[in-house]
Amino acid sequence: MRTLYMKGCVCMNFIYYAYLFFIGSSFASFYYLLAARIPRREKVVWTRSKCESCHTRLGFWDLFPVFSYFYLKGRCRYCGHSLSAAYCIFELVGGIFFIQNGLHYITSPRMFLFYMFLYSILFLIAAIDQQYFIIPDSLQVILFLLLLVDRYLSGASFDKSCLYGLVGMFAVGFLASAMVPEGLGGGDIKLMSLFGLNLGFYNASFVLCFAALLGLLSISFSHFFYKRNLSSPIPFGPFLVISFWLIKEGILQL
Fold it and tell me: Could you list the residue ranges that cross the membrane (predicted)?
């Protein structure tokens, strides 16, 4: 009887995690679509998804998060055009984000909804930067307000560490941009400054270091497997967002 109960618990946990992953990856897929259409001022809600190559409208099974990418072997079902792996990567990360958020804030629906909104904004920032190499100021303003609310909800005081983090990370970003003009953009510097405001200079500096490490790994991977030029620009925003999440949630211990 005890064994049967344990198996039932394991099964229920698996279903719960799978459900969270599916919801998270579905949101991520939608946010990636938003990121593609908003800068081009295209309709978001009433326009069906279509292949960027042959413009054929996509069906449900063509859009099923993660699964459809592997099932179709990373190609359009209709014209065979190769699809960017970024679609699948963002959906995977979105699913993992949602699982972690659901487990961390399972006892507080209010906190769950707040952090889902916060990470949704971060996800949009990462997705837009990945596709267009820009971070809209409107999203930065929303993020600024949300990070202030986050400090209040977490019980952290608004002391000098906030100011030191904001000014310090801005200075680091500005100097890095001055030394390597093609390294960091203005949006990256603003994003780093906001993370400094929220985490303080010490923690935010680790966000920057780990983001740089992820960026180097990405460049190396693209070079060895896709023969991409080492000097090709890469968006830095997604790596900053992932690093912020890892340190913010205590997944990456300092």
Answer: 14-34, 78-99, 111-127, 133-149, 161-180, 200-226
Token pair recorded at residue 37? 């259409």
Residue 183 carries which DSSP code?
A: T
Paired residues of 57 in beta bridges: 50
The DSSP-derived string for 57-92 is BP-GGGSSTTHHHHHTTTB-TTT-PBPPHHHHHHHH
Instruction: Please tell me whether the overall predicted TM-score, pTM, comes out greater than 0.85 for this model.
Output: yes
For the stretch 71-82, pLDDT in tens is: 888 888 888 888
d(CA 197, CA 16) in angstroms, rounded, equals 35
Q: How far is CA 8 from CA 5, 15, 101, in A?
A: 5, 11, 24
Instruction: Please give the Cα distance from 102 to 185 (Å, whole number).
Output: 33
Q: Which amino acid is at 60?
A: F
Query: Please, what is the Cα angle at 70 between 57 and 88, to 5 degrees?
Result: 75
| 30-to-37, 48, 94 alpha-carbon distances in Å | 11, 12, 10
The dihedral through the CA atoms of 130, 132, 137, 139 has a sign that is negative
For residue 25, which of 114, 103, 92 has the smallest C-alpha distance? 92
